[in-house]
Design goal:
Number of strands: 14
Strand content: 15-25%
Distance between the termini: 57 Å
Largest sheet: 4 strands, mixed
Order of helices and strands: HHEEHEHEEEEHHHHHEEEEEHHEHHE
Structural class: alpha+beta
Radius of gyration: 25 Å
Oligomer: single chain
Shape: elongated
Strand order of the largest sheet: 8-11-12-13
Length: about 290
């Protein structure tokens, strides 16, 4: 409202226009939208930055989305970082975090964002949704210039509040690429046949590519593919799967295929199938293939 007063609009006029049925809308203390229609997502972000001051930085899920991350559940909140000395508090849709570790912002479309590692971990600290945390960590690890080491360092340097789940899931996020693969990882441990080989490429001894199984048991030569139905419904997806299975067969690799949904809905049966496949692979000579990262 200070800007409006500088333009000659008295504060009482702004207050009156923001009353129910008025032409304006109050978004945050001292921040007015000069219309009465519901604010857009962009307007909420700009309001958060105005309220937070010139050094405010968007973090959390909004920052993750603006960095380009997919499947980030919307919690209807905007998380903003401000210098610790600023005496601001959270209001309505805005979560204000005062910090002594204000990062160097990354500008995207003119909006200052926390770097990927900070934005992801700030998101993880505010939820107990393990699937969401894993999705965020996996995407961050696959991000350019964001490594597991960087995430681990950020965890150690930042607030310990809300970090128990991200700390526990970070190790698994290094291995897997999806929530379904994390479910599969848990099953291998429960079944007593764990493996460290996830998403590693297989080649024949003469260098021909065989496949990149979701999980691989190198001692017995067993591949496990977590096959989504959506991947197979189109003709190209179906053909890719046939080609992949033909390469496995030609190389002598036994492959177990499982739908992601069954990892949770039919867990006991999946464990039995995995153990049966592992025994079958153990009973035959290991195929002549080599593992590469």
């Amino acid at each position: 409202m200070a800007t409006l007063e500088d333009m000659g609009v008295p504060s009482r006029t702004s207050y009156r226009r923001c009353l129910p049925g008025g032409p304006w809308r109050r978004l945050l203390p001292g921040v007015v939208l000069l219309q009465n229609a519901p604010p857009t997502a962009e307007q909420l972000v700009q309001a958060a930055l105005v309220y937070g001051g010139r050094r405010a930085i968007i973090t959390g899920r909004e920052a993750c989305r603006r960095h380009g991350m997919r499947d980030v559940t919307d919690d209807q909140k905007i998380h903003v970082l401000v210098p610790h000395e600023q005496r601001l508090r959270s209001e309505g849709f805005l979560v204000v975090e005062r910090t002594r570790r204000l990062p160097l912002p990354v500008l995207r479309d003119g909006v200052p964002l926390a770097p990927v590692a900070r934005a992801v971990l700030d998101s993880c600290r505010t939820t107990k949704d393990e699937d969401l945390i894993l999705r965020l960590l996996v995407q961050a690890i696959q991000w350019k210039n964001c490594t597991p080491e960087l995430l681990s360092t950020e965890l150690e340097r930042g607030s310990t509040r809300g970090t128990a789940l991200p700390r526990r899931l970070l190790t698994d996020a290094v291995l897997v690429r999806s929530v379904a693969e994390k479910d599969a990882l848990d099953i291998t441990r429960q079944a007593g046949v764990p493996t460290d080989h996830w998403n590693k490429r297989l080649f024949t001894l003469d260098g021909q590519y065989v496949g990149t199984p979701d999980a691989w048991w190198d001692d017995v030569g067993l591949a496990w593919e977590i096959d989504s139905t959506s991947f197979h419904y189109d003709r190209e997806g179906y053909e890719r799967t046939l080609d992949r299975n033909a390469r496995y067969a030609a190389a002598g690799v036994l492959v177990l295929q499982t739908l992601p949904s069954r990892l949770r809905t039919d867990r006991a049966a999946v464990i039995r199938e995995l153990l049966s496949a592992h025994r079958a692979a153990s009973a035959t000579p290991r195929p002549p293939v080599v593992l590469m990262s």
